[in-house]
From TrEMBL:
Taxonomic placement: Bacteria, Pseudomonadati, Pseudomonadota, Alphaproteobacteria, Hyphomicrobiales
Signal peptide start-end: none
Biological source species: Enhydrobacter aerosaccus
Pfam families recorded: ABC_tran
Keywords associated with the record: ATP-binding, Nucleotide-binding, Transport
Record InterPro entries: AAA+_ATPase (IPR003593), ABC_transporter-like_ATP-bd (IPR003439), ABC_transporter_ATP-bind (IPR050166), P-loop_NTPase (IPR027417)
Domain ABC transporter: 9-240
This protein's name: NitT/TauT family transport system ATP-binding protein
Gene3D superfamilies noted in UniProt: P-loop containing nucleotide triphosphate hydrolases
Record has Nucleotide-binding as a keyword: yes
Any GO MF annotation of the entry: ATP hydrolysis activity
Family to which this protein belongs: Belongs to the ABC transporter superfamily.
Length: 256
């Protein structure tokens, strides 16, 4: 992050309609969201409400029909190295080894140095893939592919990390390890994180603020500040405060 904290992300009156032959789907209707530099927010909403669409728009992969995205006050109309997206299904290049996948973005920019190779190795260690750098994606498990994709995103040191249910497919133990890993990383780097999840507990455990989206067309219908202290550990999950927060979020989601 070049010594900077995460960037401010503003989503202003974003609407999106998809047209496929005669079918018209309004995915998003006038979504407003402001994420402070270094804030960790979760987007929580029912399936099909437009969460992935919103992340793709913030990433600059899809153009909205109306509204705009600003990063640190600058309007963005396409992708950029300031924002990095982790997809719902991990996307690795099947013909590259794990370490070359991690280094792909840097290589494309001609920015590979011995230092970046060392960092890639270190990141693979961090995500528990230290001895799998030479493996190809088909030789990794599903969870390992997610972790490799995370390492690939992190090597760019993005100022905004957009995460689309990155841990949903993982087993409970790996998922918890990844959540803790992400929190540790965020605590150090203060990247701005927008994290999509279906999981109320995950949202409450990770974020500073949870934005609940309505069913399609997606809008933000409730925002809950998560005023729990950090670090958040297993003990926290059993506290009355956490249980009541989880219940509140579940109710908000039911209203969506
Ligand atoms: N490229 C596309 N063309 C047509 N319709 C699309 C396209 N992408 C998304 N949609 C539609 O937009 C709506 C929102 O989709 P989106 O993937 O954003 O939902 P989501 O909230 O991420 O759902 P989930 O939680 O299941 O991942 C859906 O009805 C989907 O069918
Ligand atoms: Mg989605």
């Amino acid at each position: 992050m070049n010594g900077e904290v995460g960037a401010r992300v503003e989503v202003r009156s974003i609407s999106k309609i998809f047209r496929r032959s005669r079918q018209v789907t309004q995915a998003l209707a006038s979504v407003d969201l402001c994420v402070e530099p270094g804030e960790f927010i979760c987007l929580l909403g029912p399936s099909g409400c437009g969460k992935s669409t919103l992340l793709h728009i913030v990433a600059g992969f899809i153009a909205p029909d109306a509204g705009e995205v600003r990063v640190d006050g600058i309007a963005k109309t396409g992708p950029g190295a300031d924002r990095c997206m982790l997809f719902q299904a991990p996307t690795l290049f099947p013909w590259l080894t794990t370490i070359d996948n991690v280094l792909f973005g840097l290589r494309a920019r001609g920015a590979i140095t011995s230092e970046s190779r060392r960092q890639a190795g270190e990141l693979l260690e961090l995500v528990g893939l230290g001895s799998f750098g030479g493996h190809y994606p088909h030789q990794l498990s599903g969870g390992m592919r997610h972790r490799a994709a995370l390492a690939r995103a992190l090597i760019n040191r993005p100022r905004v990390l957009l995460m689309d249910e990155p841990f949903a497919a993982l087993d409970a133990i790996t998922r918890e390890a990844m959540q803790n890993f992400l929190l540790g990383l965020w605590g150090r780097e203060r990247t701005t994180i927008i994290f999509v999840t279906h999981d109320v507990e995950e949202a409450a455990l990770l974020s500073d603020r949870v934005c609940v989206m309505s069913g399609r067309p997606g809008r933000i219908i409730a925002t809950e500040e998560i005023a729990l202290g950090r670090p958040r550990d297993e003990v926290l999950r059993d506290t009355a405060e956490f249980v009541s927060l989880r219940r509140k979020l579940r109710e908000r989601l039911a209203d969506a």
